[in-house]
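Appendix B. One record, verbatim.
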Amino acid sequence: MAWPVKHVAPQSRLTVFAKVVTQKVSKVRWQPGNEAVCRVPDVFATGSWDDEAKNRVSLWKLGDTTESVSAKHNYADPRLLCSINHPGDVMDLQFLDQERLVAASSMGTVSIIRRHSSETLSIAHRWENLHRLNSETSPCTSVAFNNPDIASVGEDGTLNLLRVDTGQRSRTYEQADCTALNDIMFLSNSELLTVNTFGQLKVWDVRQETCEAVQVFSMAGSHSPLLCLDRHPMQGNVVAAGSLQGSLHIWDIRKGSLPVSILDAHKGPMWEVRFHPTVPNHLFTCSEDGSLWHWALSEQGKRSGIHGHQQVQSSLSDHASTPINNWVVEDPTLTNLQITNLLPEGGLSMNSLDIFGQFLVCGSDREAVYVVSQLGVY
């Protein structure tokens, strides 16, 4: 059963800064850093799409991000540091470290891009024609990084393993899936998670010679395409995925093949889902319908839940002595789930998001990026 949810108005303490970038933004990523040391993010990357031969990967620097300025909600305009032309639409972006990032292309290529001290970007390495369908180039839909390996998947159903240190393609699973693979991430050093257009979540073990998934998870009676996924940063068995219909699916991959819960959410395709990296009872999603949602679960003993369009109370005193992972409670009415739309509803698609501490960056078809601060994530 899919549970409908409702959301509340944005909190007044939120600060939203919009930056017009004159291109549709397909992907955004914060440059990695240590949250314990760097409490305020500094640099983010964007990738564009639907601009024919003019698509670009760009790096941006926030203005003054000192804590005193942050506390005053006074952000300077993000400044373009550098950019580089990119062949085809940017389908995915991932930082490898503070100097390199990897980009996936709609033309089937994967590129490693290096940032130089002179604030320029160059191509450090490129794998051409990784994804092909019927002798034509096919989009590389997603990449994942686990040093020294990059994994790529595409609309051709192929899964590749690439070595950053040698520049070699170490393994290719030709047509590993009979349908398009839409997202990928590492579950461990040797295991990968993918979602596909048939509505399946799959686990792959790269130590095996065969290209068959070792576990397959699906939805009973439904083959709604799954477009994005993320895993809980502290409990790797908990996986969230977003669908073409805009619903949020939560799996516990230790328990059966069906989702623990399905929540009806956005009115359009869900393009990205992200657990907060350090406070994972907070989750964020964005959608084709132009919405950007913050999902928050309470840890209180008495929690309000979402059932239909009414808010109900449910006591969990019998569980008080045991920590509860609310994301895998089978009945979502047992959790205090609050959903906040961080931006005004409507408008063009919100395509991508990333989180760092109390800050979120998202990119859209509005030819703008948005930086949201003071998320209230604790």
